[in-house]
Amino acid sequence: MKINIIGVYPVAEAEEPCHLIELLVEGLYGNLDISEFTQQLPGQPRDNWQVPWDEQVLDADGTSGEPAPFPGPIRVDGSQRLVFFFHYLDHSRPLLTPAGPTPLPEPAPRPSRLVFVEYKPPG
Prior knowledge:
By secondary structure, the protein is an all-beta fold. The protein is 0% helix and 43% strand. The strands form 2 sheets. A 5-stranded antiparallel sheet has the order 1-2-5-3-4, with no helix packed on it. Strands 6-7 form a two-stranded antiparallel sheet. The mean pLDDT is 94.
């Protein structure tokens, strides 16, 4: 399995630091547990590390999507594009994924094709 982070997009409408992360999972024929995506928070137990918020499963070109099943894994049959929100992202640290640590690209403006992905605060 390979995970390619397509983009990291700042979320201006969030009251706390937040980014939309878009990624492509390739080479997986089975279940993907989104809760396994995280980022180490030094000095804190893993239970305090951030996890994805409001995950969506996208179509192949990333122009439409639907909410990911919650709770529960996402079924992947070869490849799947996903987005999720991630609070307090540290750009100097990799994103920990089921495929191992994955470096983050520099933040960029959100592409217009993702206009349908709306931020809703947790709670």
